[in-house]
Design brief:
alpha+beta; 2 helices; 11 strands; about 210 residues
């Protein structure tokens, strides 16, 4: 009986520990960030890149786009689409590419996609085709209000240039920040463990 009781307690503790540890997934999204995959395109299906949104100061969020091998972004006359859960006044600033600016455009749909806000990029030094891009979003009060993105992209050509085959890639859903257990929930869990241990001790004393 002593062995069985100990096993019951160990099993209960193990199950609780497993429940508290976040399950591993294919998406390694940093804690507190929101992550999206570019999986939709008017050029066909596939995996075109990833987008990570990280909280900054106040209502500012840093967005990092990383294209998969074989694809680049179009940053001169290209579009950046942002989806939000509610209409927001969102502005783009602080691009990692020198000389880039962006302005909010009427959203008539691009590449078969529509967005809450649509920005058209411009450069002072001609067209560029980066594989990564970082910019900031401001005017967003909560990271969960950002629900998706879309980007003008190009299939790679020679020497990192654009092959001329361009399209629009959009996210097919994101990974919101994980929910942190509330103190009350953790307290209830601890009470349950103490009660379980007491039950096992009573069983052993018989």
């Amino acid at each position: 009986m002593r062995i069985n009781g100990s096993k019951v307690l160990l099993l209960a503790v193990a199950l609780v520990a497993i429940a508290l540890v976040p399950s591993a997934s294919a998406t390694t999204c940093p804690a507190g960030d929101a992550c999206f995959s570019l999986t939709q395109s008017n050029l066909g299906s596939g995996s075109f890149g990833n987008v990570v949104v990280a909280p900054g100061s106040g209502s500012t969020f840093t967005v990092t786009v990383t294209m998969n091998p074989g694809y680049t972004l179009v940053t001169q006359g290209g579009f950046i689409g942002v989806d939000t859960s509610t209409p927001l006044s969102v502005s783009l600033s602080g691009f990692s590419i020198s000389g880039m600016s962006a302005g909010l455009q009427p959203n008539n749909g691009v590449g078969g996609f529509t967005f809450s806000d649509l920005f058209k990029t411009s450069l002072n030094h001609g067209q560029q085709f980066p594989t990564t891009l970082t910019f900031t979003l401001s005017g967003v009060s909560n990271i969960n209000q950002i629900t998706g993105f879309g980007f003008h992209f190009c299939i790679n050509g020679a020497n990192g240039s654009c092959s001329g085959n361009t399209g629009f890639a959009a996210t097919g859903g994101g990974t919101p920040p994980p929910t942190v257990p509330e103190p009350g929930t953790i307290g209830l869990l601890g009470t349950g463990l103490v009660g379980l241990a007491g039950m096992v001790r009573r069983r052993l004393s018989r």
